[in-house]
């Protein structure tokens, strides 16, 4: 309701209007009641005004109406009137102002008429706002607008002065001079409604679908049906398909599907039918799935490649491979072009059923038709090759697919690792794990467990596997030690320290681990060798040599032989930190524990110590090597150490010793000899060895005749090294 508007005071001293003014007034005074100057003509609008005034209305005013012909209710001064009930919707055309006043409860009712010449085009309201009881006008409103065939019986209103002599409960207030006040109120109301709308929680579609799913799952169909009928939701194909894809119980899904068929204005399409097919196929109800597919065809609904692919998949899953192949031929016969998903699914069906020739033919057909394989297509091919023992061919496809721009994803890597674990293809598994490490992909826990077991059976290192999935290793250690700790009393301090250590390891709290390890060393509490190795590796990954050395000291004190990976991680950290004296201690303990460095790593360590001018440490490590590790590569590394120490004669003596023991001289050895002699000014001898190198290079037909030790030497010293 609008408060009474201030009256427009008529000054008595005004001069009487002229005849021209009177004529203008007769045609324009009614603008106070009309929506637009375009409607200021005698017509239907005058009947409305006349009837309102004769029924003793109170406040008759004009709202903030439009001053031009429009459709959206725009006003060049105040914009589009806001809809208080639904801010996102438009109220109407030039009658927007009248609608706002009613919806905002400013007035009991507002009148609007139609310009007779534009009745079928635009609504141009002639607005009259009244503060009175609507009951007084029920009969009047029924007879307000006469039929087009009859002439108006009410007397038209030309100007307001005709009604000044009639008694009124309140005087008529014409057009307000300060119309900005009402517009400001509407703006404030609009702002309040927007703020209120923000505060109200939104009901997102996913929440609505979730509620419908819970209703179908936990209620009887009778209860669910009544609730569905009361949901204020527009049931279209998208919404019905979303509900079906939420996987309600199969019986409820079918009842819901049929219920949706009976909705007024709704019709199932290929998407809802295909989803219903998938529900029956997943439940193994092949006959019901075929029935739905038949109904789909009978009703003339488009059957696309997605529907055919679903049918092929579920038919083959139920063992009907021949029917799946018939479905493929039917799809092509009816002119439905297969997509890359269709080709891939059909190839997998054929490979799984040992129809390799047919699958190869389908793959060639896909390539010839211009359909590019995707990641899943390559995965199907590699999965078949690995299962057939052709890991080399699978590795070639793995590399070529990356060149083609199809990068293996997490799902593909998990599928391939799982297949490699079952057939023992550890070489291909290593390539995939390296790719996963570079692209930060991880395995699922069941696949990780299978891969770990496969590497143990093959006797190969699981370092790369644990680098790709460090979280599983920690969890495995924690769970294993928790099982072992069942035999220990629950209130045992030893058990409490171990459990705390496992928690700290999982959270990578290395500082707290240091304090706990010191305490356990003082208490002489022993830990499992895997746990100690994990502590060392965690500290190495955080570049903390002090923490790693503390754990190493604990293992030596307690007589624990840690894993080889723990020793190697510590050696790498100490080498990067130039802590070479500690490096020798680690190698000594590693050798005592029965672990070997390996020829390649031993040669690198010796060569690195020589470059750092730590000749004594390099000689110690060479002497710690077992006899089967003293070969061409390690001797060459030792020769480079003596050259860097300016002990040329000793270097040549080591070279002669190597030759006397029957180790073949390779190109890498000559590179070290030539470079070392030239650096020490002995060019004549360097030229002698250069000629021998050329002779060796000319006589070596291929690298196949070179031993593995010689290849390692060539790999490390393949170019002129800088000592």
Automatic annotation (TrEMBL):
Segments of skewed composition (Low complexity): 1-12
UniProt region (Disordered), positions on chain: 1-22
Gene3D superfamilies, per database record: Amidase signature (AS) domain, Tetratricopeptide repeat domain
Keywords: Repeat
Tagged with keyword Repeat: yes
NCBIfam families: PPR
Annotated protein name in UniProt: Nucleobase:cation symporter-1
Species of origin: Vigna unguiculata (Cowpea)
């Amino acid at each position: 309701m609008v408060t009474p508007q201030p009256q427009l005071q008529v000054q008595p001293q005004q001069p009487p209007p002229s005849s021209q003014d009177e004529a203008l007034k007769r045609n324009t005074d009614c603008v106070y009641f009309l929506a637009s100057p375009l409607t200021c003509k005698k017509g239907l609008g005058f009947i409305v005004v006349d009837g309102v005034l004769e029924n003793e209305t109170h406040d008759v005013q004009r709202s903030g109406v439009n001053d031009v012909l429009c459709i959206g209710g725009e006003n060049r001064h105040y914009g589009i009137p806001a809809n208080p009930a639904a801010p996102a919707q438009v109220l109407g055309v030039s009658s927007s102002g009248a609608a706002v006043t009613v919806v905002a409860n400013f007035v009991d009712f507002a009148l609007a008429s139609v310009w007779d010449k534009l009745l079928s085009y635009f609504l141009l309201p002639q607005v009259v706002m009244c503060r009175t009881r609507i009951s007084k006008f029920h009969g009047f409103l029924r007879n307000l607008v006469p039929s087009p065939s009859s002439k108006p019986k009410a007397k038209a209103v030309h100007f307001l002065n005709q009604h000044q002599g009639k008694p009124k409960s309140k005087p008529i207030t014409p057009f307000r001079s300060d119309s900005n006040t009402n517009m400001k109120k509407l703006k404030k109301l609009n702002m309040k409604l927007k703020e209120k709308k923000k505060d109200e929680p939104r009901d997102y579609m996913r929440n609505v679908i979730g509620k419908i799913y819970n209703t179908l799952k936990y209620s009887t169909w009778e209860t669910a049906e009544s609730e569905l009928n009361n949901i204020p939701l527009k049931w279209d194909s998208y919404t019905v398909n979303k509900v079906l894809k939420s996987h309600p119980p199969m019986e409820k899904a079918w009842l819901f599907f049929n219920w949706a068929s009976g909705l007024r204005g709704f019709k199932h399409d290929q998407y809802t039918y295909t989803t219903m097919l998938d529900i029956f196929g997943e439940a193994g109800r092949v006959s019901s799935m075929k029935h739905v597919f038949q109904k789909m065809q009978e009703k003339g609904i488009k059957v696309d490649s997605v529907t055919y692919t679903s049918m092929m998949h579920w038919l083959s899953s139920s063992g009907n491979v021949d029917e799946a192949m018939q479905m493929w031929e039917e799809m092509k016969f009816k002119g439905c072009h297969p997509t890359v998903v269709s080709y891939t699914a059909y190839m997998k069906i054929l490979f799984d059923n040992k129809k390799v020739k047919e699958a190869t033919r389908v793959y060639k057909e896909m390539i010839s038709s211009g359909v590019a394989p995707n990641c899943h297509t390559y995965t199907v091919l590699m999965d078949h090759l690995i299962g057939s023992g052709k890991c080399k061919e699978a590795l070639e496809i793995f590399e070529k697919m990356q060149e083609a721009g199809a990068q293996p994803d997490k799902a593909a890597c998990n599928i391939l690792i799982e297949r490699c674990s079952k057939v023992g293809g550890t070489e291909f598994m290593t390539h995939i794990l390296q790719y996963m490490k570079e692209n930060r992909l991880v395995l699922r826990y069941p696949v990780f467990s299978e891969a770990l077991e496969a590497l143990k059976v093959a006797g190969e290192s699981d370092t790369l596997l644990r680098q790709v999935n460090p979280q599983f290793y920690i969890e495995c250690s924690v769970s294993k030690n928790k099982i072992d700790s069942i035999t220990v009393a629950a209130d045992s301090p030893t058990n409490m320290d171990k459990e705390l250590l496992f928690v700290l390891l999982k959270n990578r709290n290395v500082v707290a681990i240091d304090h706990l390890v010191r305490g356990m060393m003082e208490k002489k509490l022993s830990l499992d060798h895997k746990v100690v190795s994990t502590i060392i590796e965690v500290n190495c990954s955080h570049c903390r040599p002090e923490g790693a050395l503390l754990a190493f000291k604990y293992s030596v004190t307690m007589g624990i032989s840690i894993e080889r990976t723990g020793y190697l991680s510590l050696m790498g950290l100490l080498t990067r930190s130039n802590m070479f004296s500690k490096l020798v201690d680690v190698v000594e303990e590693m050798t005592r524990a029965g672990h070997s460095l390996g020829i390649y790593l031993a040669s690198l360590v010796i060569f690195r110590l020589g470059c750092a001018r730590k000749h004594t440490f390099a000689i110690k490590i060479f002497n710690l090597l077992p006899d089967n590790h003293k070969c061409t590569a390690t001797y060459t590394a030792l020769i480079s150490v003596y050259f860097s120490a300016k002990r040329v004669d000793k270097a040549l003596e080591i070279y002669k010793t190597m030759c006397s023991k029957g180790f073949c001289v390779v190109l890498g050895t000559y590179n070290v000899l030539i470079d070392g002699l030239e650096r020490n000014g002995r060019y004549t001898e360097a030229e002698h060895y250069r000629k021998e190198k050329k002779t060796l290079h000319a006589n070596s037909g291929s690298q196949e005749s070179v031993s593995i030790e010689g290849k390692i030497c060539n790999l490390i010293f393949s170019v002129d090294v800088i000592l």
